[in-house]
Amino acid sequence: MSLEDPNGKPWTVAYVPGERDQRDRLSIGWAAFALGNNLEEGDYCVFELIAPVEMRVHIFRVVEETAPAVEKTEN
Questions:
Q1: Helix (H, G, I), strand (E, B) or coil at 71
Q2: CATH code, 56
Q3: Has residue 72 been placed in a domain?
Q4: Total number of domains in the chain
Q5: Is the pLDDT of residue 22 over 80?
Q6: For the whole model, what pTM was predicted?
Q7: Three-class DSSP category at 33
Q8: For residue 26, what are the domain limits?
Q9: Cα 40 off chain centre by
Q10: 28-58 burial by CB neighbour count: b if 16+ within 10 A, else e?
Q11: How many alpha carbons lie under 13 Å from residue 74 in its C-beta half-sphere?
């Protein structure tokens, strides 16, 4: 099957349907997709089916908590 990344680049991956109590998964080609799109632990991928064997992947990046640039002080 084909995955389209957020830039519109297609990636070929193997889709493996799960049996009984197992989940479906992506196999051959998934590692290249993940590396090519700099996926990190905590990132979310939303798969949008756009054709029988084609999905558009929306990537939502994990954002670490940041401290404000200026601290508010009490008078």
A1: coil
A2: 2.40.330.10
A3: no
A4: 1
A5: yes
A6: 0.77
A7: helix
A8: 2-60
A9: 9
A10: ebbeebeeebebeeeeebeeeeeeeeebbbe
A11: 0
